[in-house]
UniProtKB/TrEMBL annotation:
Single GO molecular function: oxidoreductase activity, acting on the CH-OH group of donors, NAD or NADP as acceptor
Assigned protein family: Belongs to the short-chain dehydrogenases/reductases (SDR) family.
Protein name as annotated: 3-oxoacyl-ACP reductase
CDD domains from the UniProt entry: SDR_c (cd05233)
Annotated source species: Pedobacter quisquiliarum
Entries under InterPro entries matching the protein: NAD(P)-bd_dom_sf, Sc_DH/Rdtase_CS, SDR_fam
Signal sequence interval, chain numbering: none
Oxidoreductase in keyword set: yes
Keyword Oxidoreductase belongs to the record: yes
One Pfam family cited in the UniProt record for this chain: adh_short_C2
PANTHER family xref list: 3-OXOACYL-[ACYL-CARRIER-PROTEIN] REDUCTASE FABG, SHORT-CHAIN DEHYDROGENASES/REDUCTASES FAMILY MEMBER
Keywords in alphabetical order: Oxidoreductase
Length: 246
């Protein structure tokens, strides 16, 4: 069987790293896209010959088409796109400036739209493909101090449905993962320094513990595989029940 080709944005850190690792382990050639060349290079070296990278600041929308063209010229195909890259900002609503809001939207929404459009052009010619977007619990219920991030991830969930309706008849499935509270270095530091917040998170999570990056990676692999060939337009929480907890 021909080796599949996956693109993972933000693929060298956090959830992206877990997904890149999982895809390579499954025998999928994986191209990571990100800004930090040192991290990308180190990750590619660790994961081996099936892993490579492209250095790109996804805020530079006009550079995305050329990046995707380079990947197609090199590998001849794109089977999977994981839209994982994103930024957050914690700030009181009344203090968020127009520029603050725009910066989050540009990276978390506009770049997802632009890269999905360019990759979809390739997938349409192939007659097949799978796109997996990454949302957040911020789109499932209200979380204070993340107004721009909440708006962005809510847009991602709406875009997932709209993309699925247009692209699925062309052979491209589009789905979305909404991670709950996942144990990463960043989240551990934040929660460990705020016992009240940590207790609130765990008390409303029926499974009673944080998830692991691998939990999200397993779901991304499933949604982009033939095992999910009749699934499109879904938003799947991977959250230990947090979004339905009380």
């Amino acid at each position: 069987m021909k080796t599949k080709l996956a693109i993972v944005t933000g693929g060298a850190a956090g959830l992206g790293l877990a997904m890149s690792t999982k895809f390579v382990a499954a025998g999928i050639r994986t191209v990571m896209i990100g800004r930090n060349e040192a991290a990308l290079k180190a990750t590619a070296a660790t994961l081996g010959e099936l892993c490579s990278y492209k250095v790109l600041d996804l805020q530079k929308l006009d550079a995305i088409p050329a990046c995707i063209a380079e990947i197609v010229n090199t590998f001849g195909q794109i089977d999977i796109l994981i839209n994982n890259a994103g930024i957050n900002m914690k700030k009181d609503f009344l203090e968020v400036t127009d520029q603050d809001f725009y910066n989050i939207i540009q990276t978390n929404v506009l770049s997802v739209f632009a890269i999905s459009r360019e990759v979809s052009k390739v997938m349409v010619k192939q007659g097949q493909g799978a796109i997996v977007n990454i949302s957040s619990m911020a789109a499932q219920y209200g979380i204070p101090k993340v107004i721009a991030y909440t708006a962005a991830k809510s847009a991602i969930e709406g875009m997932t449905k709209a993309m699925a309706v247009e692209l699925s008849p062309l052979g491209i499935r589009v789905n979305c993962i909404a991670p709950g509270f996942i144990k990463t270095a960043m989240s551990s530091k934040a929660l460990d320094n705020d016992p009240e917040r940590k207790n609130k998170v765990l008390s409303r999570t029926p499974m009673g513990h944080l998830g692991l990056p691998e939990d999200v990676a397993d779901t991304a692999l499933y949604l982009s595989s033939d095992a999910a060939k009749y699934i499109t337009g879904t938003i799947l929480p991977v959250d230990g029940g947090n979004s339905i907890g009380f």
